Hints:
This protein is an alpha/beta fold. It is built from 14 helices and 16 strands.
Amino acid sequence: MRIALFTETFLPKVDGIVTRLKHTVDHLQRQGNQVLVFSPEGGLTEYRGAKIHGVSGFPLPLYPELKLALPRPSIGEALESFRPDLIHVVNPAVLGLAGIYYSKTLDVPLVASYHTHLPKYLEHYGLGMLEGVMWELIKAMHNQARINLVTSTAMQAELSEHGVERIDVWQRGVDTELFRPELASAAMRDRLSQGHPEAPLLLYIGRLSAEKEIDRIKPILKAIPGARLALVGDGPYRTELEAHFADTPTNFVGYLAGEDLASAYASADAFVFPSRTETLGLVLLEAMAAGCPVVAANSGGIPDIVTDGVNGFLFDPKDEEGAINATRRLIEATAERETMRQNAVAEAEQWGWAAATRQLQQFYHQVLAETSLPLAA
């Protein structure tokens, strides 16, 4: 199968969407497919055998790490040369419009997938009044596709409520070969805690951006005697967060990758995740695979991953005390934490990337089998 993949973000950027896409591309190629990736220019021309067609763009004003890559004629030329069987647009916004356009002009079946809950992001950037407009744009773009893939049942329900059609759930995936409890390390714990390995260690890994609501970890940190916090990652909100956490024992670690990243997960006592905008929350699966129990907001796609009281704790995202109590309980109950650690690993081990990509291929074959049928009105 020849698949043209349009994405608004790809390597060398680091986030959950890129993690999913790079594993997907890798496994699609391994399974005998040919993938051509259209993404904002990042210096790469190839990944795991797949060619990357970089499109020049400019930084998004509110979020400089993201580039807006405008459609160009070279995209059509590359597609005509590649002759795809199918076009898959990921979070179509700007570059994804080219994928939608060429699916029509070249008569190539279109698949779309939804990974970033943009309508909910808007309120964190002072643009909440545009949420209705954003939903209309999402509906208009996604309803061009023969199937719309989401990463949780919560997102399936929400998109359906807003008029998006033909929705199915693309199962979660995690690299269980990399993220594993055995990588727990005294040296990494010492690094994350800035020389206080005996202290309760809270961990956040991911983008440092407003919509992640990382500032809401501060009351939790202050409520647990002696606790320390490690924030792994970077992003546009880092300066504000450094000021917010200035009076606390918080370590801004920066980016980690590979076994260093996996060791960070495995070496902490609790992974705290207050975000309410997650379509899935891939970092939660990574934490669980590494044996780090999670405390997370009961919102979005997170309840699809975390079973409260079994492999982690969920809290009402509006209840600050609930988040504090859940984290304190996890830290203080050593035996319970060990049981949760084991349950978390067992849950994550069910969700390898190979199985997730095989499911994606089944969706692709389903769409190809239906190409002779008209879309429902």
